[in-house]
Design goal:
Length: about 110
């Protein structure tokens, strides 16, 4: 069965960096696009980055130039490098796979605060 396990969240000061990881299993990782979403308290879940099976990427404007999504198909792992973090980046970050339906990990908390 599909499993997605995120790690790497934590507390960081504004302007700092974090790298999130998502360990994937139960499907042919290299064949599918993957994404990172986040959800802040009281807000809807939103897309922060997407990567295709061929490693093409997409970022919404509010993270463009600060976040980088990447994948290591040999390790079945998805990454999100987050730089120049802002307090508004605070939230739970989720790894996502769409394979007939959405699959989600348990999420990892990112808190940006001084």
């Amino acid at each position: 069965q599909v499993q997605l396990v995120e790690s790497g969240g934590g507390l960081v000061q504004p302007g700092g960096s974090l790298r999130l990881s998502c360990a994937a299993s139960g499907f042919t990782f290299s064949s599918f696009g993957m994404a990172w979403y986040r959800q802040a308290p009281g807000k809807q879940r939103e897309l922060v980055a997407r990567i295709g099976s061929g490693s093409t990427t997409y970022y919404p404007d509010f993270v463009k130039g600060r976040f980088t999504i990447s994948r290591d198909n040999a390790k079945n792992t998805l990454y999100l490098q987050m730089n120049s973090l802002k307090p508004e980046d605070t939230g739970v970050y989720y790894c996502n796979l769409y394979l007939s339906r959405d699959y989600w990990g348990q999420g990892t908390q990112v808190t940006v605060s001084s």
